[in-house]
């Protein structure tokens, strides 16, 4: 692959979509994959293949495509679920040896 801005953006989008699809499917996001993607984007910024603004715009666009909401909306929603007590932790009310 040639190192030009267009190819870099295409590869970044491909990696973002793969990661976001896994998360949307219910898999826990891999810290290793996130770190690799972050490093990939930082390298692109360092090599002047993309600006920070372009990278942020790509992240937002792909996130909206996959999740149907912005990153901020999703963060707020996840935080709100925690606050509203929508998580059911009643299974942990009993001792571990009696849970099934």
**Ends distance:** 51 Å
- Give the percentage of residues in beta strands: under 5%
Q: Give the low-confidence spans.
A: none
Any idea what the shape is?
Answer: elongated
**What is the number of strand segments?**
0
Structural class from helices and strands?
Answer: mainly alpha
- Gyration radius, in Å: 18 Å
Q: Indicate the mean pLDDT.
A: 84
Would you write up a description of this structure?
It is a single chain. With 100 residues, the protein is mostly helical. It is 66% helix and 0% strand. It has four helices and no strands. The protein has helices at 5-24, 31-46, 52-67, 71-84. α1 runs antiparallel to α2 and α1 packs parallel to α3 (52-67). The protein is elongated, with a radius of gyration of 18 Å. The N and C termini lie far apart (51 Å).
Short description:
The chain is mainly alpha-helical and 100 residues long. It contains four helices and no strands.
Describe the structure using short key phrases.
100 residues, mainly alpha, 4 helices, 66% helix, 0% strand
């Amino acid at each position: 692959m040639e190192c030009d801005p267009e190819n870099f953006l295409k590869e970044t989008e491909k990696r973002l979509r793969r990661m976001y699809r896994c998360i949307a499917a219910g898999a826990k996001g891999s810290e290793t994959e996130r770190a690799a993607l972050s490093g990939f984007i930082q390298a692109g910024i360092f090599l002047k293949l993309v600006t920070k603004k372009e990278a942020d715009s790509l992240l937002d666009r792909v996130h909206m495509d996959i999740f149907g909401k912005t990153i901020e909306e999703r963060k707020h929603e996840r935080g709100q679920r925690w606050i509203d007590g929508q998580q059911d932790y009643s299974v942990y009310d009993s001792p571990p040896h009696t849970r099934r």
